[in-house]
Amino acid sequence: MQDFQVLFDHAERSALLDPVYAPYGKLGFPAPPAGRPWIFANFVQTVDGIVSLLGADPSGSDIAQSPEDRWLMDLLRAHADGILLGVGTLLEETRLGRPRPRGPVFRIMDSTLGELRKRLRSGPERNIFVTATGRLHLADHNVFDEDAPVEAFVITSPHGFLGMMEQTSTTHPHVKLLVAGTGPDVDLLAAVQLLRERHGVEYLLCEGGPSFYGAVLRHGLIDEKFLTVAPFEVGQQVPGEGTALRPTIAFHEGFRKQDAVRWEWLSCRRVGNHQFHRLRRRP
């Protein structure tokens, strides 16, 4: 792995003076807002803004193809009390058998960065999945096993709770089930408030997917994002798939110009032809 070339960086200093930061440089975060976590996202995209190639190559790693991007993912995970994901990401990677049958566990793989997390954050790594419908069979996924190396949460709606309750009270009592909202959808603001109040989550890393990220963004809950830009271009229409469109980073109903989300460009790094940006949402 190569060191990151720092082009500029106006963000906070690291909370710890630790040599593990040497390849990247400083990485600090502001205090979380009252009542909810500070939520930061991490994505990789092509030059033309595509975040999934779909088909047999749907994940961010298929776009990045960069050891530095993978290391940065672990560095960001080290600063998070939990990783927030839409359940669609888990289902898709499990369907493809990635990285193994019964799907992934979203965790720090670099042992040095795992030790950094222990110095920064208290408690185990957490995977927190959001599903409004509750149509999720926990036994189908590695991440919900009792001996999984992360603490697993499922956040659902009152409707989804009826489908999840039997599993979490019998076969998977170690999985934490939270209900947020009063109707058929998950109330995302209530969800992150519950994570802060009941489970002490102060820093939350959103890893998508794009439709879920778009929903969190529309609720005003993305405080900043780390964006890797890979040096190639693919186009939005999938070859040979008719009208199938590859998603962009915020794959959701858009904003009018006056409502557009605006960002402050906090830092920029490069490794070869890969760009590594950090942006913070402006009020």
Please sum up the structure shown.
The protein has 283 residues and is α/β, with parallel strands linked by helices. It has seven helices and ten strands. The two termini are 36 Å apart.
What does this structure look like?
The chain starts with a strand and ends with a strand. The chain contains 7 helices and 10 strands. Helices cover 24% and strands 22% of the residues. It is globular, with a radius of gyration of 18 Å. α2 runs parallel beside α4 (111-120). The model has no long low-confidence stretch (mean pLDDT 94). By secondary structure, the chain is an alpha/beta fold. β9 (263-271) and β10 (274-281) form a beta hairpin. The protein has a 10-stranded mixed beta sheet with strand order 1-9-10-8-2-7-3-4-5-6. The protein has helices spanning 60-64, 67-78, 87-95, 111-120, 158-169, 188-199, 210-218; strands at 5-9, 38-46, 82-86, 126-131, 151-156, 176-179, 203-206, 224-230, 263-271, 274-281. It has a single domain, classed as 3-Layer(aba) Sandwich (Dihydrofolate Reductase, subunit A).
